[in-house]
Write a structure and sequence with these properties.
This protein is α/β, with parallel strands linked by helices and about 375 residues long. Helices cover about 40% and strands about 20% of the residues. It is built from 15 helices and 16 strands. A seven-stranded mixed sheet has the order 4-12-11-10-7-5-6, sandwiched between helices. The chain has a four-stranded mixed sheet with strand order 1-2-3-15. A three-stranded antiparallel sheet has the order 13-14-16. β13 and β14 form a beta hairpin. α4 runs parallel beside α12 and α13 runs parallel beside α15. The radius of gyration is 21 Å and the shape is globular. Bound molecules: pyridoxal-5'-phosphate. The site of pyridoxal-5'-phosphate (PLP) has 14 residues, from α5.
Length: about 375
């Protein structure tokens, strides 16, 4: 408490984030430049956001072009860039989820997906997976594992919630029932430790939702937009949800998120069912379009797949005993607490993340990361005692 009071007086920022012991001032590709002069290789990507890395010329060009043309406009005025970006995103996804509602953050996209599910089904319950993370707002926090005990804050959740084990398809019949409006799942859990839920479980979720008339929501805020080496994890697993949320890498640092809807759901929408001021702004849409364009034209999905395989084959050294996850959402299993390995890596100018699993070090690098960069990571890991 005393330390908090001292910190609160030393800064005008709300003291809610534990911070790493390095101040960054500049970014370039996959490199961070710190105030103390260090150059740090970034395997964390601003928490999965910097998919194209820092200062990508196409991203900068879109930002400049659109800000000169028109930085903002309300959804009440039609704009070509908004339509164009939605067409680009749905074509990239190729999941038959052909309608987009633009928003600004991951939690907001999940909040709206859940709201639609309750509105359309008239039911009372949502089901989520254990170890899930879906965001900090009332509905997104309600379906986040452990939030109620740790930080939720609201006196009650806005609907009933049941959590099911992430690896037990046999448990689904008893939990997903005729009261269930929606099941929300990260196909590859991020905060939960780069944990791939896997095709059999995702298929079982799809089948159970269809059997009871519940809607299936894929939260691809962290694992989507190319991070898994395919447009979305849904493409990799061959399982299609009714709604899918995307954010983070979609803007590469500009706040933009999207809720993709099936035809059946889109057909039910009426004016005023959903709304937002900033979602669908021309800057956000121009950036999302440029990000997808860059992923496609620079064949970054193939790079993610190739370099991901290289990480799997070369980084089981030092304290790392195994690798889980998909593409560039990887969890290195550590024999020592991951926090200790993270600190030792930072001492060697490599930034990696941790997760809710104390023995998983999380890697979320930019899609432009190459094998030479990975060699630096494996060299650094090899010098850390197991
Ligand atoms: C899977 C997932 N869903 C939702 C969110 C929340 O996104 P935001 O912080 O943009 O609200 C996150 C953030 O880490 C996430 O990883």
């Amino acid at each position: 408490m005393a330390a908090n009071i001292a910190a609160a007086h030393a800064s005008h920022l709300a003291q809610v984030f534990a911070q790493y012991p390095v101040e960054v001032v500049h970014g370039e590709g996959v490199w961070l430049h710190a105030r103390d002069g260090r150059k740090i290789l970034d395997f964390y990507g601003g928490h999965a956001v910097a998919g194209l890395g820092y200062g990508h010329p196409r991203w900068l060009a879109a930002l400049e072009r659109q800000s000169r043309q028109m930085a903002f406009q309300t959804n009440a005025l039609p704009m070509l860039i908004r339509e164009r970006a939605a067409a680009k995103l749905t074509k990239f996804a190729a999941l038959g989820l052909d309608t987009v509602f633009w928003l600004s953050s991951g939690a907001e996209a999940n909040e709206n997906a859940l709201k639609l599910a309750f509105k359309l089904t008239g039911r009372s319950k949502a089901v989520a997976l254990q170890q899930s993370f879906h965001g900090r707002t009332a509905a997104a926090g309600a379906v986040t594992w452990g939030a109620l005990k740790k930080w939720y804050g609201f006196p009650r959740t806005p609907f009933d919630v049941a959590f099911t084990p992430r690896d037990d398809a046999a448990a689904l019949d008893g939990i997903i029932d005729a009261d269930t409006a929606a099941v929300i799942v990260e196909p590859v859990q991020g905060v939960g430790g780069a944990y791939p839920v896997g095709k059999p479980m995702l298929q079982a979720l799809r089948q159970r939702c269809d059997a009871v008339g519940a809607l299936l929501i894929f939260d691809e805020v962290q694992c989507g937009v190319g991070r898994c080496g395919t447009p979305f994890a849904a493409n990799f697993y061959g399982v299609t949800p009714d709604m899918l949320t995307a954010a983070k890498a979609l803007g590469n640092g500009f706040p933009v998120s999207a809720l993709l809807l099936s035809r059946r759901i889109a057909a039910e929408l009426k004016y005023d069912d959903l709304g937002t001021t900033f979602g669908g702004g021309p800057m956000a849409c121009a950036i999302a379009e440029a990000v997808i364009d860059t992923i496609e034209s620079e064949t970054l999905l193939a790079n993610v797949r190739q370099v991901s395989n290289y990480i799997r084959s070369s980084c089981i050294v030092g304290p790392v005993t195994g690798v889980q996850g998909l593409g560039f959402l990887l969890g290195l299993k550590t024999s020592r607490p991951a926090k200790e390995v993270q600190a030792a890596l930072l001492d060697r100018n490599v930034l990696a993340g941790t997760s809710a699993d104390p023995n998983i070090l999380r890697l979320l690098p930019a899609y432009i990361m190459n094998e030479g960069h990975v060699d630096r990571l494996s060299d650094a890991l090899a010098k850390i005692p197991a």
